[in-house]
Amino acid sequence: MSELRSAEQIRGAVETAVAEVSVLDLHTHIYPPSFGAILLWGIDELLTYHYLVAELFRQSPREFTYDRFWKMPKREQADVVWQRLFIENSPVGESCRGVLTCMEKLGLDVSARDLSGARDYFERLSPEEYVDIVFEKAGVEAVVMTNNPFDDEERPSWEASAEVEGRFKAALRIDNVLVAFKYAAPRLREWGYDVADDLPEKALAEIRRFLADWIDRMGAVYMAASLPPDFAFPEDSPCGRIIAECVLPVSREKGVPFAMMVGVKKLVNPPLALAGDGVGVSDLSAVENLCRDYPENKFLVTALSRDCQHELTVLARKFRNLMIFGCWWFLNDPSMIEEMTRMRMELLGLSFIPQHSDARVLDQLIYKWTHSRRIIADVLVEKYGLALDAGWVATTEEVERDVASLFRENFNRFLEA
Questions:
Q1: Which of 110, 123, 209, 334 is the most exposed place for a label (fewest CB within 10 A)?
Q2: Using CA atoms, how far apart are residues 178 and 323, in angstroms rounded to an integer?
Q3: Does any domain span residue 375?
Q4: Is residue 1 part of a domain?
Q5: Is it the case that residue 1 has pLDDT exceeding 90?
Q6: Residue 2 falls within a domain, yes or no?
Q7: Total domain count for the chain?
Q8: What CATH number is attached to the domain comprising 382?
């Protein structure tokens, strides 16, 4: 076994292990090529991602309206973003840096500032070829998708039993059922589930049947919902009743966790579309109540507000059926990733999942994992160094084991528990 007795040896071992580890990315919005147009990829999709769209309007004159932008063809939208955020202003924001990292890792000449040359590169590739390139560049072995039966673009692929290659795992998204049941109910009835808006017992049984059917159809590894800051449980509401009487029993029966992503305020600025969502501080007593009162259920949780992170980490110390994961959305920035990873490691050791990409464009796997690996490695180097200062000598093999736990095996073990 190779003992690590100096700071230099520790850094070398950690950086090598983190660079080489294969990642299981447990939350994304990307899909296999067999799903058609809902797989987003390429430079124009990168540039028109909603993070950059939000920045664009901060750098644009008021006469450049939301409506005008959304009426543009995708390529013209990308041209505007490139001009405003990369040419007229320096691309120092994390989302702009992400585009640069993707281009650089793909071998494109970033210094040339040549958008047309970048487009030429992507036009020579098929989606299937590019998936292979991205997974290799990002060091990702598999991703978990976000799969919503209520999405009219996605559902036909499942109904047609489209083949889903093994690198793409499914997660059943149930926001529509939990937070918009009055709109979901007519669709459920259309699909043959006998539900009523006032949720009699028969309707609850039918919702359970719907969840079980779609878990089986997708092979879903968990159920998930994005929840508002005022999410409460227990609660005498459609959401509260459906969680208690449908989601939790089906979760136990199928052995799949219930993933809660808490703290999003939908469409605080509706004209921005996907870029218009905001953040609120969540009352995490709902998570506490669920973990305490349902010890046979497993819960994956991430929170959107920085203010929630310490409380959520403390909850994870108290409940072994809670696995916290990733730095979600507005927290997926280097300063926040570093702060959260350090705090979680200090309170939980290695028993958490430090990151997920939340990638909505395939290419984002490259930059999000490139950036996150560097930050997580730096935190690990610090912690192994502090252990060395106290007389503990780690080995290369132990570092490789620990890194594999953080980037892949903690998730696998939690699913299998």
A1: 123
A2: 21
A3: yes
A4: no
A5: no
A6: no
A7: 1
A8: 3.20.20.140
Q: Is residue 337 part of a domain?
A: yes
Task: Supply the range of the domain harboring residue 273.
Answer: 7-416
For 13-44, write each residue's pLDDT tens digit: 999 999 999 999 999 999 999 999 999 999 99
Q: pLDDT tens across 187-218, in order?
A: 999 999 999 999 999 999 999 999 999 999 99
pLDDT in tens, 69-81: 999 999 999 999 9
Question: CA-CA distance, 260 to 31, in Å (whole number)?
Answer: 21
pLDDT for 395 equals: 98
